[in-house]
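Usage example:
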Amino acid sequence: MVARDNAPADPDPQAQAMNARLRAVAQSRDQAAFADLFRFYAPRIKSYLRRLGTEDTVAEELAQETMLAVWSKAAAFDPERAGASTWIFTIARNLRIDRLRHERRPEIDPDDPDLVVDPAPPADEALETGRREQRVRDALTHLPPDQARVVALSFFEDVPHAEIASRLDVPLGTVKSRMRLAMGRIKALLGESR
Amino acid sequence: MSASFHPSDALLAAYAAGAMDEPTALAVATHLAFCPRCRAEVTRLEALAGAHLESLPVCAMADDALARTLARLDRTPPVPCPPARGSALPGPIGAYCGGDPASLSWRPLSPGIDQAILIRSDRAQAKLIRMEAGIVSPRHRHAAAELNVVLQGAYRDESGHYRPGDFAVEAANRTYRPVADADTACLCLCVGDDPIRPTGLLGRLLSPFAG
Ligand SMILES: [Zn+2]
Ligand SMILES: [Zn+2]
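Running the assembly step on the lines above writes:
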């Protein structure tokens, strides 16, 4: 099951609906749209934090804080750069660093006029954001289940390879080779340039 | 001019996942300001994380979570987008020295070489190093790997010629003798002192590809 590399997937309607709600929050402080975003994302952000070992009450509180930051920072959401899920992931990630590790998150400002720009942007960047993000979703869903399991465990659950091996009852080398296969496949589907 | 020396895939992945200490993240982010290729890679990795967030099984919120959050909205004003501004130093470094490295407290390290600490954490520290034009620095090695990102000017050592944006890794226990180019002073961000450990998550996920 290999996705056709040159046929851009259509952006999925749910992703487009989430982007539209986020724009409604930015443009008209739409509380109903915010409530929809909250119902979808808050339980997933809490799940993300729990998987990284955050205790339940702290994860609950940080998920609410993340959604408040979505409310106050909505004007910075730019669907040309990232979809709603990606943008909200970065807010949750940064808030976790700020609150639990008490560190700043060094980041670049994409509007900084001093950023060195590519004279000829690669084809991948020309691909519209919605389609690019849809390809990422497709890549994830097209992974064989044994590879997908290994990716999920080490991507979002912070489980060391040795522990994944014992949980799945396979040798460590198998975990590493599944990971290598999975990432190779995802990179190929995304038009990896390196 | 784009950079020619880049962070490994494992470092970019750990940066995207947020699984990295602040000094190391500052070195990666500073490189990103110079490098459209690595910015595109981080964008892809963040999209992967965003897609995964959508597909996570939900973890139920408290019954009153939505109501309590809605009640706080009126007290949470919108944050306007900050105006884009250029600074003397590229990328996120400016925020660590008020936009002006001269405002830091510099102290001499050896003749022609000064340093100013930006971040001191329990795992690593980040500092700026300024070498006068043509200075030959003392031969040295580090017990753990050290990262250098060139901000201005250029230097050369046993492993290459590094120009603005280049991300250099001085491996542990190897000996280095950086020499600043003759025509201009060289300003670098330098992260080290402790083992560079891209912990957890994507760092481990991608470590088989570390270059
Ligand atoms: Zn690069
Ligand atoms: Zn050194």
